Recover the amino acids of this structure.
């Protein structure tokens, strides 16, 4: 693995040269490993942009910045674009349409930020092989499963050259690279979080109110897994918010609220999965 990582760093140096690179940092495994890898290759010529889309988990922005200030010596800037993303998602219900709208808006944000950098030529992403497979239709042998925002959402007139050093790797391989680079175990083995975030975990139309509800529900679920020492025994766990309401009782009062659905799976390659049997 040491030789593989050394070759990846060498390839990045050769491709980028003395140019600057923008990277969309989400705090997830893939973008974190990509950031560490590119930082090893070009140092301060990497500028990481953390975009607060309003579609993140509870306190995600604060946690990400704290983690990177502690463990990395890289340039990172946080950009609050919540209003922009909610405006773009208004009225959209189809998950593919939402993915592409979010991906396009990401590029718009990076383009705006790039204007502040004199020689930013590359846009780096934590794209991995399952992203590519699920977003592509290869002849008659495969179908588009879902367009990942970093694959299907990119415009044709992209003003950057893409830099995707993890594009041929599966999730387990990405994690091995992360450990070889010295990233903390809790960061490397954190459950994946989709690039479009809660935009696709809120089923149908996305609003700030729905995202706020989902943030709280998801936070409760993840904290319960930690409390029960189950978090590291499952591959991915999260909550989705369904586009329907149902009657319930809270205290002595009747309620009529959205339904939240718990999802929890185990997988090796993040291409196929089985449901987790939680106690």
């Amino acid at each position: 693995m040491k030789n593989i990582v050394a070759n990846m760093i060498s390839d990045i140096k050769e491709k980028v040269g003395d140019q600057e690179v923008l990277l969309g940092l989400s705090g997830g495994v893939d973008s974190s490993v990509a950031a560490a890898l590119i930082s090893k290759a070009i140092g301060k010529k990497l500028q990481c942009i953390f975009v607060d889309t309003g579609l993140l988990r509870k306190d995600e922005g604060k946690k990400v910045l704290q983690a990177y200030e502690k463990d990395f010596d890289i340039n990172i800037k946080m950009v609050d674009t919540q209003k922009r993303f909610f405006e773009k998602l208004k009225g959209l219900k189809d998950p593919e349409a939402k993915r592409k709208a979010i991906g396009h808006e990401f590029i718009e944000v990076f383009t705006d930020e790039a204007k502040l950098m004199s020689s930013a030529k590359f846009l780096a992403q934590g794209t991995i092989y399952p992203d590519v497979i699920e977003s592509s239709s290869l002849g008659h042998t495969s179908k588009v499963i879902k367009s990942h925002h970093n694959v299907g959402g990119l415009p044709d007139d992209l003003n950057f050259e893409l830099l995707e050093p993890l594009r041929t790797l599966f999730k387990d391989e990405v994690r091995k690279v992360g450990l070889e680079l010295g990233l903390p175990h809790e960061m490397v083995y954190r459950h994946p979080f989709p690039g479009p975030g809660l935009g696709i975990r809120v089923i149908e139309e996305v609003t700030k109110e729905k995202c706020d509800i989902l943030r709280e529900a998801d936070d409760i679920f993840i904290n319960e897994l930690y409390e029960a020492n189950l978090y590291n025994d499952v591959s991915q766990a999260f909550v989705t918010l369904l586009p329907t309401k149902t009657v319930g009782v809270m205290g002595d009062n009747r309620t009529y609220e959205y339904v939240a659905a718990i999802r929890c799976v185990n997988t090796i390659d993040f291409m196929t999965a089985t449901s987790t049997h939680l106690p």
Notes: DSSP finds nine helices and eight strands in the chain. Residues 103 and 149 are 4 Å apart (CA to CA). The chain has a mean pLDDT of 88. The first strand starts at residue 20 and ends at 24.
